[in-house]
From TrEMBL:
Pfam families: BPD_transp_1. Keywords: Cell membrane, Membrane, Sugar transport, Transmembrane, Transmembrane helix, Transport. One of its GO terms (biological process) is transmembrane transport. It is a multi-pass membrane protein. Belongs to the binding-protein-dependent transport system permease family. This is Multiple sugar transport system permease protein. Its main location: membrane. It is found in: Cell membrane. InterPro entries: ABC_transporter_permease, MetI-like, MetI-like_sf. Residues 83-295 form the ABC transmembrane type-1 domain. One of its GO terms (cellular component) is plasma membrane. The chain crosses the membrane at residues 21-41, 87-108, 120-141, 169-190, 272-295.
Amino acid sequence: MPLINARRAKRRGPRRFTSRDLAVIGVLLGIPILLDLALIWGPTLASIGLSFTNWDGIGDIHWVGIDNYKTLFSDYPPFWPAVRNNLLWVAFLGCVATPFGLLLAVLLDKGVRFSRFYQSTLYMPVVLSLAIVGFIAQLIFSRDQGALNAILANKDNPVDWLGDPELNIWMVLLAAAWRHTGYVMILYLAGLKSVDPSLKEAAAIDGASETQTFFRVVLPTLRPVNVIVGVITVIEALRAFDIVYAINHGRNGLELLSVLVTDNIIGEASRIGFGSAIAVVLLTVSMGFIVTYLVQELRGGKKG
C-alpha cells in the first residue's frame, strides 16, 4: 500500500491551480493591494508631487520647485517650534511613558493581588481617543475651573497650566503619556507571559539577582515586543494632532507639524502645495526614526 500511494503521488505531480483558484487569489490579494495603493501610497506620492507646486485646490497648479521648502525652513516661524515639540513628544513617550509601562507590566506579571482590576484600570485610557483625552486635560488643568488648581487651592493666583507656553506642553505630554502607558503595559505584559520560566530558574541557580535576571535574560527575549513598542511610540508621537487641537488648536506653545499641515491645507489660505511640503517633512522624519530603529533591532536579532 505505501508503494502504491507513492506511485500515485508521483503520477499526480504538483497541483495545478484552476481558473477559479486564480480568480479567488486575485480578488483576495488584489483588493487589499488596490486599497493600499489608493489610500496610502497614492496620497503619499501625490503629496510629494504637490510639495513642489503652488496650488490652492481650485485653480491651476504652478510648479515652483523647492521654493516651498526654502520658505518652510527660513521664513515660516511656526515650523521650528513644531519640529522641537514633535521631537519632545518622541523623547517623552520613549524615555518616560514607555519605561513606565514596562515597569507596570513587570509588577503585574508578578501576580499581585487584584492584578485584573489594575490591568483594566490602567488600560482603560487606551480606548479613549486623544481628542477625548484633550477634553479631560482641560477639565483637570483649566485655569479657572480646573481640578488641579482646586486641589492646590490656588484661587487667588491660579496657575494657567494650558495657557502658559512654558507649562502647557508638559501638561499635554502627561495626558498623552497617561494613555500611552496603558498600551505599552498590555504589550509588554503579553510578552512577559510568553517568557519561558526555565530561563529565570536557570539564572537564579547561577546566582543572578532579580534585576540581573530581568535585564540579561528576560529583556533580550522581549526583542520582538521592543520593536513593536518602539515603532508604535514613534508613530504616536509624530502623528499627535487631536489632543492639542482640542485644547487650543495647536497654538501658543503646542505647535505640531500635523497641525501646520492641517492649517495650511484646510485653512482659509488653502496653500495645498506648502502644506504638502510640511507633510513630506513629517513623513521623512517618521521614516527616518522607524527605519533606523528597525534596522538596529533586526541587526541585533541576527547577532543574538
